[in-house]
């Protein structure tokens, strides 16, 4: 079925979108050449950026892939292969352009990916995800693909092929700070998630059991959620600054107006609403007949909660984990503003210095982390809900 | 034996069950019938203390139910409800094993009991034991619900409209099976039902309730031949007596002007069906499509005329 050839006349609408995106990408400058890292650069297009006929060869290759993607119903496996090839080609072109354009021994000049590269990369990435989505791979296959993609990305970076590009030069200058930021970022995102669960799960259970608590708690959390993130991080500074100065022992415990602590608290507060409300929704969605029967045959209320209500609420609670984690990986960037570390440090340094490459050094890994976390958790949630239906005939 | 001793339940001052006393002998079936909202479920749930009585006592054998921890009391009493209440995340076998596990039975004993009960309820353990409830038919789920209630060999089984969700054919079979199994195990059974036919078929004694009060508690034959009040008579009549005239005439004949809430009934509906509707839904009048109403009073007057 997969490789059956359809009538060639049919055009795939998504293929059309990818081809258009890719074509604009071919037309726009592939990279920007800047004499130093903060001046505005000059766009260089694909043909000019690559040495000799390489530019033409790559451009034709990409055009061919996009054109093949146009025909509807072409084998999905083939499409996926082509898309991956396209991704490889665009990375190859970027690396080659950086190598060719950087003058020997010049440590000031920068070659940054420009709109052309981003659009090409986007077009092939969309083509790949589209083909993948239609292939409907099983959970295991998807987990393998995710692992493969992460490995491939790491491999490309480790190979050194892109080392002359601006972002990688920024990285090379800050390799140590980068790995520290990575850990800080993960700590902020997972730490706040953990805290939100330690506090939010019991709170969700409490508002489920004690009706009068429900409204005030949810209203308060909803209000917290509507505070703009920058403002919330800002509010943390005077509050915890005061606490650190006036509550004996607080400062020794790491409480401070700036730094990781207020950032962690802000993320924690944002995470609280999804955790509490999903716990409550999950628990309330348990059928009254099941609850009644559980009590009626002699389970204690604690046993009903542990053995019946919480397990049945689990999928909804896990959905909260996913929301919170992806949300917090993104929001943790703002920690950079109040000295909380993480990839946000690069972003805000970059903004201060108007150094786009430095901003990217913070933004790209954040996006990557959020994507991997989101897809990974989807896989976990699906695996669990499959297990729940394991004995379906 | 179970004895209810002047049981009452008040919700914000309103009596939902009022001064009910009755005794069910060991191994007997008592069927609780009455119109919707008459307090059947509340009465049943006071027996295993899912509802705490406002006044009165429940004796199970010679123990006062109020003197035992509620969850320990409930482990001695089977409980099965409409919609079965099976745990959707546990297999059939695990569902049946719940109470024996709570009571700390040994695993081998539990496993044997699961197989024994499944066979008793006509469910092949090899096929169904490891299935989740959603992979069973409604009738099978209902049987697992009853099997679970009987798992720890309770002396007493409480059922609240256990067959309410089943279609009539399966329902009749389920009733027969329940009766047979109850006789075989000798369990005392209190069953709430909406259906007088079901009460007559299953009950050794029938308790008729109206507005929280127990109107009559007697064997079916006595309920049929010597109804204690006109209400009982009407309730029994609606289900059991051949109201020829009522069955022969349609609602059109008793239609009178007025308004009543609810979905209008067809003017071709028989008077007997209209009476049954009024009684089961506890309504004083039914709207008739095309305008007008038919009242319970008019129907009862006609029924009395018919039974003479
Ligand atoms: N927790 C409660 N709080 C207040 N009123 C209640 C409560 N439970 C039941 N009632 C009221 O008590 C009355 C009797 O309810 P119950 O459920 O016992 O009736 P029932 O005979 O089982 O009715 P049905 O046949 O419809 O199941 C109803 O009017 C109901 O609204
Ligand atoms: Mg009821």
UniProtKB/TrEMBL annotation, chain A:
Residues 182-377 form the ABC transmembrane type-1 domain. It comes from the Bacteria. SUPFAM superfamilies: MetI-like (SSF161098). It comes from Rhodobacter viridis. It is found in: Cell membrane. GO terms for biological process: glycine betaine transport; transmembrane transport. The keyword Transmembrane helix applies. The chain crosses the membrane at residues 54-73, 80-102, 114-132, 144-162, 182-208, 220-243, 263-283, 358-381. The keyword Membrane applies. Gene3D superfamilies: MetI-like (1.10.3720.10). It holds the Pfam family BPD_transp_1. This is Osmoprotectant transport system permease protein. It is a multi-pass membrane protein. Belongs to the binding-protein-dependent transport system permease family. Keywords: Membrane, Transmembrane, Transmembrane helix, Transport.
UniProtKB/TrEMBL annotation, chain B:
Keywords: ATP-binding, Nucleotide-binding, Transport. It comes from Rhodobacter viridis. SUPFAM superfamilies: P-loop containing nucleoside triphosphate hydrolases (SSF52540). This is Osmoprotectant transport system ATP-binding protein. Belongs to the ABC transporter superfamily. One of its GO terms (biological process) is quaternary ammonium group transport. PROSITE patterns: ABC_TRANSPORTER_1, ABC_TRANSPORTER_2. GO terms for molecular function: ATP binding; ATP hydrolysis activity. The keyword ATP-binding applies. Residues 2-236 form the ABC transporter domain.
């Amino acid at each position: 079925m997969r490789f059956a050839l359809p009538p060639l006349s049919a055009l795939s609408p998504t293929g059309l979108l990818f081809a258009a995106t890719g074509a604009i990408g071919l037309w726009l400058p592939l990279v920007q050449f800047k004499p130093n890292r903060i001046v505005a650069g000059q766009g260089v297009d694909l043909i000019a950026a690559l040495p000799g006929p390489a530019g033409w060869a790559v451009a034709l290759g990409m055009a061919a892939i996009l054109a093949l993607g146009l025909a509807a119903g072409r084998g999905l496996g083939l499409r996926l292969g082509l898309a991956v090839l396209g991704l490889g080609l665009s990375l190859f072109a970027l690396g080659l352009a950086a190598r060719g354009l950087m003058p020997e021994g010049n440590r000031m000049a920068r070659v940054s990916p420009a709109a052309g590269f981003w659009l090409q990369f986007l077009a092939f990435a969309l083509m790949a995800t589209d083909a993948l989505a239609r292939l409907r791979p099983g959970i295991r296959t998807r987990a393998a693909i995710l692992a493969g993609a992460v490995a491939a990305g790491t491999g490309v970076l480790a190979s050194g092929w892109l080392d002359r590009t601006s972002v990688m030069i920024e990285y090379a200058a800050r390799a140590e700070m980068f790995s520290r930021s990575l850990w800080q970022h993960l700590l902020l995102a997972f730490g706040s998630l953990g805290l939100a669960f330690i506090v939010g799960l019991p709170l969700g259970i409490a508002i489920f059991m004690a009706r009068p608590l429900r409204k005030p708690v949810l209203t308060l959390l909803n209000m917290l959620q509507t505070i703009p993130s920058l403002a919330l991080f800002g509010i943390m500074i005077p509050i915890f600054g005061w606490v650190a100065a006036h509550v004996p022992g607080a400062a020794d415990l790491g409480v401070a107006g700036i730094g990781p602590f207020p950032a962690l608290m802000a993320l924690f507060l944002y995470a609280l609403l999804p955790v509490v409300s999903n716990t409550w929704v999950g628990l309330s969605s348990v059928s009254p007949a099941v609850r009644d029967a559980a009590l009626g045959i002699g389970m204690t209320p604690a046993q009903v909660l542990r053995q019946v209500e919480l397990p049945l609420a689990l999928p909804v609670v896990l959905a909260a984990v996913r929301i919170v984690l992806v949300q917090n990986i993104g929001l943790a960037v703002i920690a950079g503003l109040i000295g909380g570390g993480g990839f946000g440090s690069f972003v805000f340094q970059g903004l201060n210095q108007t150094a786009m490459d430095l901003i990217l050094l913070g933004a790209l890994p954040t996006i990557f982390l959020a994507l991997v976390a989101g897809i990974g958790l989807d896989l976990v949630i699906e695996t669990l809900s499959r297990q729940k239906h394991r004995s379906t005939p | 034996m179970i004895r209810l001793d002047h049981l009452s339940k008040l919700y914000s001052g309103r009596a939902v069950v009022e001064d009910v006393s009755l005794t069910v002998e060991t191994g007997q079936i008592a069927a609780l019938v009455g119109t919707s909202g008459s307090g059947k479920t509340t009465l049943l749930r006071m027996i295993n203390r899912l509802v705490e009585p406002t006044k009165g006592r429940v004796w199970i054998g010679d123990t006062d139910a109020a003197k035992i921890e509620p969850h320990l009391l409930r482990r001695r009493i089977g409980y099965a409800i409409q919609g079965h209440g099976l745990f959707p995340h546990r297999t059939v076998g695990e569902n049946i094993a719940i109470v024996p596990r709570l009571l700390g039975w040994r695993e081998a004993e539990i496993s044997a009991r699961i197989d024994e009960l499944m066979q008793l309820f006509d469910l092949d353990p090899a096929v169904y034991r490891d299935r989740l409830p959603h992979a069973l038919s409604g009738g099978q789920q209902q049987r697992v619900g009853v099997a679970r209630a009987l798992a720890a060999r309770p002396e007493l089984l409480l059922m609240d409209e256990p067959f309410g969700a089943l279609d009539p054919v399966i329902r009749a079979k389920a009733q027969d099976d329940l009766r047979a199994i109850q006789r075989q195990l000798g369990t005392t059974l209190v069953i709430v039902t909406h259906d007088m036919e079901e009460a007559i078929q299953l009950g050794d004694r029938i308790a008729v309730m109206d507005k929280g009060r127990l109107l009559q508690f007697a064997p079916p034959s006595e309920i049929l031949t010597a109804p204690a009040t006109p209400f009982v008579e009407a309730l029994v009549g609606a289900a059991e007596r051949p109201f020829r005239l009522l069955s022969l005439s349609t609602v059109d004949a008793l239609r009178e002007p007025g308004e009543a809430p609810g979905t209008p009934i067809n003017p071709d509906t028989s008077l007997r069906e209209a009476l049954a509707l009024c009684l089961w839904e506890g309504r004083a009048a039914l709207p008739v499509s095309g305008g007008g109403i038919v009242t319970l009073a008019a129907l009862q007057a006609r029924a009395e005329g018919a039974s003479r």
